[in-house]
Amino acid sequence: MPPTVRQRVRAELTAEITAAARRQLAEVGAAGLSLRAVAREMGMASSAVYRYFPSRDDLLTRLITDGYDALGAAAEDADDPAAAPRERWLAVCRSVRSWALAHPHEYALLYGSPVPGYAAPRDTVPAAARVGVVLGRVLGDAARGGVLPTAAGVDRDPELVSDETAAVLGGDHPALDDAVRLRALLAWSSLHGTIGFELFGHLVGSVADTDRYFDLAMAELAGLVGL
User: Fold this and answer.
1) Domains of the chain as residue ranges with CATH
2) pLDDT digit string (tens) for 2-19?
3) Under a CB-based contact definition with an 8 Å cutoff, are residues 192 and 217 in contact?
4) pTM, whole model, 2 decimals?
């Protein structure tokens, strides 16, 4: 059944509110995001915006979920199952960096400093996991194809790496052992650390060619996980 006129209007206005909020992110940062400021930019009464997002935290949650989904979609689009596992890994990592450089304020919302007074709810986790799921799929396919070395007898410490995280990193690929999943988590976090260093200016004066540096770092991480 097609959406009703009311549903279409609500969806369009919700999209306009979130677009205005993303512009606010670029101007004042996540900590300065205000529903009243968004309403002023749109020429709406703040009470009207509150009907769509009852609080600033609700709006932040929507922006975070949308950001994770957009980043995850970029990673999924970059993954070519017909390519060699190492090339798939590198392509996914490059796509994450490209998205971050194209959307620096949204990336900062996802992976930058925590927003004072805000805690992301659990329902943001599936979107946040999408990049990890793609990387885990690459590793799982490599393991099933006999590309990854195994580490028989290495058990994952559940107090160090949760079952939930292990499931994200190749949960539907039983050929992956716990040692590979642990290295995958290290690589996943290092991917974002490398991007953050570049995005927030920490490589200035240290690296002359950030493209080459990133490719070198990701190649090292590919080697870490056995690709």
Assistant:
1) 1-54 (1.10.10), 64-225 (1.10.357.10)
2) 778 777 878 888 899 999
3) no
4) 0.89
